[in-house]
Amino acid sequence: DTGVSQDPRHKITKRGQNVTFRCDPISEHNRLYWYRQTLGQGPEFLTYFQNEAQLEKSRLLSDRFSAERPKGSFSTLEIQRTEQGDSAMYLCASSRAVGGESDEQYFGPGTRLTVT
Amino acid sequence: LAKTTQPISMDSYEGQEVNITCSHNNIATNDYITWYQQFPSQGPRFIIQGYKTKVTNEVASLFIPADRKSSTLSLPRVSLSDTAVYYCLGTGTYKYIFGTGTRLKVLA
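ok -> structure tokens follow
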């Protein structure tokens, strides 16, 4: 399977704990995105990498959130000192940059985080 | 602030053609219009993308008028399995803003 994969699929944690999610993009894709989605809402952009460089980060992303893509392949999203408001589906997407602004994103299945 | 506007929900019957319109008055010159489909507990799935005029693939058609201030996703002969949320967004400046989408419910 050459789709985007995410691990874990589900995570339950207690408030105040740190969690880390992993995303493996489609192998030839150089762009990688993280989104957060809560019930009834569309995906909310968190951050974006082109290769290993983090090019954009949402203003909504607090300092408790950090993302890395060290070798331009897989990426990790860490949330420190989790809060109940962090409970959401965390989606990863990847795309292959081409000329112009066309950008078809392929999404993974998501990691559902529940903070108790 | 969302850069696109869509109806919140639509109902249709199996076998009908469904048209979902999206307004994007502030679309940038370089932006493409992209539509995604999302089923519950899954990530969005790319449906179709266009810049202007008409684009058709095996799943849908996309109509974009000359002024590019709106676009219409057309789903021919929908089935129950097309029940999902549909999002339009501009790729480029506003590529990250999904909005709340249009919840399409297909009835038997």
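The mean pLDDT of chain B is 90.
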